[in-house]
Amino acid sequence: MIRNVRKTKAKLRKELEELKKSEKYLQALVENSYDVITVLKADGRRIYASPSIQRVTGYSPEEMLGRTPFELMHPDDLPHVLEVFSKGLQEPGFLGSVEYRFLHKDGTWRIHEATGWNLLDDPDVEAVIINYRDITESKQIQERLEKINHLFLGLGVDLITNMERIIETGREIMGAEMVNYYRTEKGRPLYALSTVPGEMLKPIENPKGHICYEVMRRDAPLAIENLDTTGYAETDPYVKGYGLKSCLGYPVIVEGKTKGCIALFDTYRREYAHDEIELLGTLARAMAVEEERLAREEEMKDFIDIASHELRHPITLMKGYALSLRELWERLDEEKMREMLNAIDHGADRLNRLVLGLLD
What we know:
By secondary structure, the protein is of the alpha+beta class. It contains eleven helices and eleven strands. The chain has helices spanning 2-31, 52-57, 61-64, 78-90, 136-154, 159-174, 211-218, 232-235, 237-242, 274-328, 334-359; strands spanning 36-40, 46-49, 95-103, 109-119, 127-134, 178-185, 188-194, 202-203, 222-224, 246-254, 257-266. Helix 5 (136-154) runs antiparallel to helix 6 (159-174) and helix 10 (274-328) packs antiparallel against helix 11. The protein starts with a helix and ends with a helix.
């Protein structure tokens, strides 16, 4: 009998230890969850907030206890959130999701994605469980990609207009104060386009002190968080003239050769994220396509100039001989006529070869 009691006690102790381990494990999962986990009463008041709430909102769990999440939501989003929350309270076991803007402690509006689960009828919980995360960055990336897609779909036949749209889109989606496109044309360095009025197609006398020239020389992206720590404040007139503090430049490569550089600037110190560098790289590749088309147009113009010269020569020759035959027909001997007619025949053959070459 005593032995059985001891076995029972040992079994209970073991089960209790396992239960404590299980509780600690679950608590560790919740406490270290990347997403925020909060527990609300039916009136919306928080009775629990996981430590990750401070990373996501800037507020500590203690600051948020007893408060409702609705207090810091954007007024335009609040009606929809309250509608979903009210609907969820009326349906036990309801599971729903919603997006809204939340006022971070630093004063910025952040986008949250929340999933709520109504467990008020569960006797072990008697609360609403809310799981949410900050999706601001992913939303911004999605919006930027949509704008880039819109840009690509809207590009037309005018190359300069297309280039202007690319740099303006870069200024808009990257939130930059200035975007410049530096390029070379027949060996001459130019600031071809800029989002600053009046700063277009200006030849640069000494390009070596310009940031864009350095990007082209390096043939690689260049991000500078603080231009005050570099010499560009003195050597780059745009940096000096506009009080620029940060820069991100990306080379524009056409057929393996660096043709230009697209660069964005701001008048404050700015750290550029990896996705922003990749985004500017996408715009640089779009600019490269327009540069290729521009090069083809220039090649076509050169080709047409040469072709027109080649065509004019036999036409002029044939026209001259034809006029001579018409004016001097009665005074020309048979040998001279045959010579002129042969020249016209040879000219016609040459024209035919040129036309076949053009068609090819």
